Amino acid sequence: MSRAPVAGVDDARKAAGPSFPDEDATSGASVADPAGGTRERLLAAAFAITAEGGYGAASVGAIASRAGVAAGTLYRHFASKGELFVVLFRRVCGREVVAMRRAAEDVASGPERIVAVLDTFARRALQHPRLAWALLAEPLDPLVEAERLAYRRAYRALLSELLRSAVDDGALPEQDPDLTAAALVGAVGEALVGPLAPGADVDATALLPELRALVSRAIGTAVPR
Amino acid sequence: MSRAPVAGVDDARKAAGPSFPDEDATSGASVADPAGGTRERLLAAAFAITAEGGYGAASVGAIASRAGVAAGTLYRHFASKGELFVVLFRRVCGREVVAMRRAAEDVASGPERIVAVLDTFARRALQHPRLAWALLAEPLDPLVEAERLAYRRAYRALLSELLRSAVDDGALPEQDPDLTAAALVGAVGEALVGPLAPGADVDATALLPELRALVSRAIGTAVPR
Amino acid sequence: MSRAPVAGVDDARKAAGPSFPDEDATSGASVADPAGGTRERLLAAAFAITAEGGYGAASVGAIASRAGVAAGTLYRHFASKGELFVVLFRRVCGREVVAMRRAAEDVASGPERIVAVLDTFARRALQHPRLAWALLAEPLDPLVEAERLAYRRAYRALLSELLRSAVDDGALPEQDPDLTAAALVGAVGEALVGPLAPGADVDATALLPELRALVSRAIGTAVPR
Amino acid sequence: MSRAPVAGVDDARKAAGPSFPDEDATSGASVADPAGGTRERLLAAAFAITAEGGYGAASVGAIASRAGVAAGTLYRHFASKGELFVVLFRRVCGREVVAMRRAAEDVASGPERIVAVLDTFARRALQHPRLAWALLAEPLDPLVEAERLAYRRAYRALLSELLRSAVDDGALPEQDPDLTAAALVGAVGEALVGPLAPGADVDATALLPELRALVSRAIGTAVPR
DNA sequence: AATGAATGAGTTTTCATTCAT
DNA sequence: TATGAATGAAAACTCATTCAT
Q: Nearest C-alpha of chain A: how many angstroms from B15?
C-alpha cells in the first residue's frame, strides 16, 4: 500500500501545470524574484502537483523534477520542504481572503454580503478542487499546519464579523457567529469538494445558485413561504 | 519533515483500546470470524489507533503490536493494509448510517427528522473526534478513499431522501436535497471536528443546540421574525 | 573533497573482518543474541569498519553491507546508528577497563601498578590502532561522545585512584593525580596510535619497555642517576 | 545523526574573526598575495571558523560567506577545500614550531629547554583550544591529514633533537628521544585540550605549573628523594 | 495459522564542486 | 576574477510487504 499516490506526476503536463490563479499583471513579482525564476518555478510546480494529487504527491523529488531542477536546488530557495509550503500557503490563502473581502465590499447589506463572500469562496474552490481540499483539510507538515490554521481563522473571522454586525443590525436572527461561520465554510467545502474529488463529471457551477440559497437560509435571512 | 505525530501509540492501553461503539450482542460476527479472533483483534486495534492518532499513526507494525500479533500475521487476514481499512471503514460507517436512520425513525415530522439525524451524527462525531476526522476528511489510501466516497454517498442519500419527502410534503422550501445534504454534513463536521472546531478545552456539547438551530434554518424550516 | 574515506570498504574482507578482541568462550553471548545473529554481525561489521577506516567510514550502508544485510535491517536491531555505536563502545571500552583493572590487581606495590596498567592499555591499543584512535579521539555522534567521555573518565579514575594512593603512601611525589592520569593516557595514546606513532613498518611492540620507563619517570618513581 | 554542531557560524563576527596569531609585520605576504587579497581573506575565514567550531563547521559556503565572497570564488584560489586547509595547516603549524623553537633559544640548559618548549606549546594551545583540537586530533581530509603528520613530525623532531642533545650531555637519562617527544606532545594535548581536559569553567592556566613538573619528571630531570 | 527478521524503494536533507555569465 | 545557481551523490531513516521457518 503506497502511502502517496505519485502516479501520473511525471507523465502529466511537464511544461507548466496550472498557472497560479489570479497571477495578474499587478502581481508582486519583484526583480529579485522574477516570474520565471527557479524559486517561482518551484512554487508553481508545488502548486500544480498539490492541485493534482494533494500534499502526499508533492515529494521534494517530484516538485524539483516538475520544476526542471535537481532536488538539491530546492534547498537553495527554501530552508525546507515545509518552508516552501508555508510560502505557497500564505500566497494562495492570502489571495483567497483578499478575494472574499473584495466580494464583501461590493455588496451593501449584511446578509447578502455573507452570501457573496461564500459564493466567492465556492467559485474559487471549484476552480481547483484538489487544491482546495489540500488547503482546507489535508494533514500537513506542522509548520504548514500552523499557517493553515491562521488562514482558516482569517476565513472565519471575516465571516464572523459580517455575521455579527448583521445580527446586531437586526438583519439576522440571534446566533453564534463563530459557529455559523465555521459551519458555512465546512458546508461549502463539503458540498463542492466532496462530490468533485473523485469524478468531475458533475457541472458543479450549476450548484452555485442552490448553494447561495442554502447559505441564505442557514444564516437566517427572512424567507417568506 | 515528519508526516504525522505517532506519539503514544505503543504505550497506550495495550490490552484493548476503546471498544467498538455499538458492539452489541446482535453484531454480525460470524462463526468463521469469532469476536475474539485475530481478524477482529486487528480491526479493533486499527480502530483504536486511528481513533487516537489518526490514519498516520496506524502503521502495520502498530496495529499488529496492539492486536498482540506479529506484523506478518496481518497479511493472513487482509490482502493489504488498505483492505483492512476498507473493511473497517465499511463497518464503522455502516454503523453510523444505521444510527442516523434509527434517529430518523424516532421522529414523526419531516423537518425535525433531518435535524434529529444530523444531531445524531454530531453527537457521535463528538464521542470520537479524531476518528470522525479520519472518516470524514483525512486523506487515505486510494482503496479506502473509494470506500469513504461510498459512505459519504450513503450519508447524503439518507439525508437527501428525508429532505426530498419533506419538500414534497411542503414542509420545506424547494431545494436541491443532495446539495443540502452534503452541505449539512460538511457544516456539522467542520463546526465540530474540523480545524476550526474549538479545542478540547471547550465543551463542544454546548454547541449542539446552536447547531440544531443552524440546521433548522439551513433546511428552510419556517423561521419567525 | 570527499568527507569520509569510504574506499576499500566493500572490497575488503567481506566475510568477517577482525573478530572482536577477547571474544573468548566465556563471552556473554545470550540465547536471545546468538553470536551469529544479525545484531552481532552488525556490531562485528561496525567494529571491523571502524578499526579499518574510522568512524567516518562506518556509514549505515557500509555496515549493513559488510554484515550481509540490507540497510533497513540495522534499524530492527538498533534505534539509530548512534545507538549501535553506543553498544559497541560500551562493549569495547568496558573490556579495556576490565583488562586494565585486572592488570592492577596482579601487581602489589603502587608505582608498578600504574606502570602495569598503562602497559596493558598500550599493548591492547597496539592490537587495533585505528580502532584505538577512534575510541580515544575521533569526533562522534553526541550520543556516542557521551559514552566515550564516560569511559575516558573510567580510565582516568582508575589511574587517578592508583596514583593518589601511591602518593599518600609516600611512594610517589606530590602531584595532581587527575592531571597525571590524563596526561599519561594522552602520552601512551599518542606514542603508540596517534599520528606521531611509527608507521606499520615499525614493530611498535619494541617500544613498550621504553614506554614503561617513561611512565615510571613521569609519575615520579625514584630514579637514580 | 548530526556529525558536527555548526551553531553560531553565520551570526558570528562577520567582519573579521580572530586575527591570525603572530600576524606580525614581517609576515610572508607577497605582492602577488596581498594581505587584504581574497586568498588571504579566505584563509583567515577558514582559520576563524575552525577555531570556533572545528573542521566540521568549516564548510565551503561558510568560509566563503565569512570571507565576503561567493562559494565558487574559493576555487579560483585553491584547487579544492582540502588544498586550502593544507595551506592553512602549513602556515599555522609552522608558526607553532617557530614559537617553540624561539622558546628553546631563550633557555640555556638542556632539560629546561624541553620544559620551556612544551610550556609554550601548552600556553598557545590554551589560547585557541578548539583550534588546537582541530590541529592535533580532529579527523580531516586525507590531504590535510598528511600535512598534519608533517607538522607533528616537526614538533617531534624539535623536541627529539633537544632531548637527544640533553641525553648526550648526560643531563638526562638514556631514553628513546622520538618516543619521549611523541608521548610528551600527547600528554600535553590530552591534559589540556582532549576530551579529558577540564571544561571551560576551570582555569586551565592553573594546570601549567603542574604540567611543567610532570614534563620534568617524564624526561628524567633529577628528582629528589 | 503465525512468526518476525529481512527487504528495498522511498523519504528529506547536505555540501563540495562546476560552469555559464 | 568573480559570481551564485545548479548539481548530484551521498547521508540517515521509515515502513508496507514478503517468506522461510
A: 27
Average of per-residue pLDDT across A18-31: 44
The reply to whether residue A182 touches residue B175, judged by beta carbons under 8 angstroms, is: no
Please enumerate, as own/partner, the contacts of C195-199 that have beta carbons within 8 Å and a separation of 24 or more: C195/D145, C195/D148, C195/D149, C195/D152, C196/D152, C196/D153, C196/D155, C196/D156, C196/D181, C196/D182, C196/D185, C196/D186, C197/C129, C197/D182
Q: For residue A18, give every residue at least 6 positions away whose Cβ sits within 8 Å of its Cβ, in sequence order, or none.
A: A47, A48, A51, A128
Give Cα B159 to chain centroid, integer Å: 15
Percent of chain D as helix, strand, coil, to the nearest 5: 65, 0, 35
The chain-wide mean pLDDT, for chain D, equals 79
> For C115, which DSSP code?
H
Q: What is the mean pLDDT of residues D109-121?
A: 89
* Confidence grade of residue D29 (pLDDT, cut at 50, 70, 90): very low
Among B46, B32, B194, B210, residue whose Cα is nearest residue B118: B210
- Within 8 A by CB and 6+ apart from C116, the residues are C103, C104, C106, C107
Whether the CB-CB separation of C66 and C38 falls below 8 Å is answered with: no
Angle at D204 (CA atoms; ends D199, D205), nearest 5 degrees: 160
Instruction: Give the Cβ contact number of residue C25 at 10 Å.
Output: 5
3-class DSSP state for residue D21? coil
Tell me the three cell numbers of residue B90: 465499511
Contact A63, A119 (CB under 8 A): no
Q: Kindly state the cell numbers that stand for D182.
A: 611523541
| Closest of B123, B118, B138 to residue B54, by C-alpha | B138
Please give the average per-residue pLDDT across C133-141, as a whole number: 68
Highest mean pLDDT among A31-45, A189-203, D130-144: A31-45
Using CA atoms, how far residue A193 sits from A133, B134, B195, D133, in Å, is 6, 16, 16, 61
Residue A69 Cα to chain centre, angstroms: 27
Q: In angstroms, rounded to a whole number, what is the distance separating the alpha carbons of residues D34 and D46?
A: 17
Q: Chains touching chain A at 3 or more Cβ pairs under 8 angstroms? A: B
Distance between first and last Cα of chain B: 53
Cell digits of residue C51: 578499526
Q: Kindly report which amino acid residue has its CA closest to the C1' atom of nucleotide E2.
A: B73
Instruction: State which amino acid sits at residue A128.
Output: H
Distance CA D149, CA A16 (A): 56
Position B33 scores a pLDDT of 62
Chain B contact for A80 (CB, 8 A cutoff): yes
Name all chains with 3 or more CB-CB pairs below 8 Å to chain D. Answer: C
Looking at the complex, does the CB of residue B194 fall below 8 Å from at least one CB of chain A? yes
User: What pLDDT is stored for residue C138 in this prediction?
Assistant: 65
Bases in strand F with any atom closer than 7 Å to a protein CB:
1-20
Angle at the Cα of A87 from the Cα atoms of A86 and A90, rounded to 5 degrees: 80
Asked if C55 and C30 count as a contact pair (C-beta separation under 8 A), the reply is: no
Cell reading at B39: 481478524
Contact D176, C171 (CB under 8 A): no
The candidate with the shortest Cα–Cα distance to A156, out of A174, A136, A140, is A136
User: Cα separations (Å) of A9 from A63, A193, B207?
Assistant: 9, 21, 43
* Cell (9 digits) for B213: 438551530
**Can you give the C-alpha Rg of chain A in angstroms?**
19
Length reported for chain B? 225
Q: How far is the CA of D72 from the C1' of E17 (A)?
A: 8
User: Mind listing the pLDDT tens digit for each residue in B48-86?
Assistant: 998 888 888 899 999 999 999 999 999 999 999 999 999
**Which pairs with CB-CB distance under 8 Å and at least 24 residues apart come from C165-172?**
C165/C110, C166/C110, C166/C111, C166/C113, C166/C114, C166/C219, C169/C110, C171/C109, C171/C110, C171/C111, C171/C221, C172/C110, C172/C111, C172/C219, C172/C220, C172/C221
**What is the tens place of the pLDDT at every residue in A145-189?**
788 888 888 888 899 999 999 999 999 999 999 999 999 988 888
Largest separation between any pair of C-alpha atoms in chain B: 64
